[in-house]
Design goal:
Blueprint lengths: L5 H21 L6 H19 L3 H23 L3 H26 L7 H28 L4 E2 L6 H16 L8 E2 L2 H37 L1
Antiparallel strand pairs: 1-2
Helix pairs in contact: 1-2, 1-5, 2-3, 2-4, 3-4, 4-5, 5-6, 5-7
């Protein structure tokens, strides 16, 4: 059975993770990548607990959580690019799954309530994180994929990519970090388009669903 008010828990976990990685990046002495990885894992666990109501998705979610925990241990024991990529890939698969589940739950028939509004915010935040990981893959393949982004340690690099992703998603375009390769530029354009169309389509769907539900109540 789905937990009532599930999206608020997911939203809190996502916002807490974003705040946590910002603090750890700003003040590296209070923790390293291990703490950031723990925050990742915690957000994954809350995502499973708050969203999954079907047995298949629950099993897949638990499997990815276990893989995530293994990747954290591997990164603490073996500091290499391979363990780094493995850990990020596990997180990426989990966020893709969570985004899909959130989309499906968000657009189920029924009245528009506060929980669905929280869900729409979660999908937006998840989209930014998913694109940040795509940018990460591109920096692995091409160290010059971005202007203004140094090929630094994973913790600092991920924060900068998350920052750039949300700046692009919201079309703020500060210009301190800019795409420097055709693939990166294409990803940035797609993310900006998604951010604009998502808000427009979401508002139309929510308003339409609300009007439809009120008509059904009157009838």
């Amino acid at each position: 059975m789905q937990i009532r008010g599930n999206f608020i828990y997911l939203l809190i976990s996502l916002l807490s993770f974003l705040a946590f990685i910002a603090v750890v990046t700003e003040y590296p002495n209070i923790g390293g990548w291990g703490l950031v990885s723990f925050a990742f894992e915690l957000s994954l666990i809350i995502a499973v607990w708050s969203l999954v109501r079907q047995k298949l998705w629950f099993i897949i979610g638990i499997f990815l959580i276990v893989l995530g925990a293994i990747s954290v241990v591997m990164q603490l024991m073996i500091d290499s690019l391979y363990t780094e990529v493995f850990g990020i890939t596990v997180v990426f698969l989990f966020y893709i799954m969570t985004t899909f589940i959130a989309f499906r739950e968000l657009f189920r028939r029924g009245a528009i309530d506060l929980n669905k509004i929280f869900g729409s915010i979660c999908v937006y935040l998840l989209a930014g994180l998913n694109w940040a990981i795509l940018y990460y893959y591109q920096t692995i393949l091409n160290h010059n994929a971005f202007n203004g982004l140094e090929y630094s340690d994973l913790k600092e690099k991920m924060f900068n990519l998350i920052y750039y992703s949300y700046v692009t998603l919201s079309t703020l375009g500060y210009g301190d970090i800019t795409p420097n390769s055709p693939i990166t530029q294409a990803l940035a354009v797609l993310e900006a388009l998604f951010g604009q169309f998502y808000i427009a389509i979401l508002v139309a769907i929510l308003v339409g669903t609300h009007i439809s539900a009120r008509r059904e109540q009157k009838n």
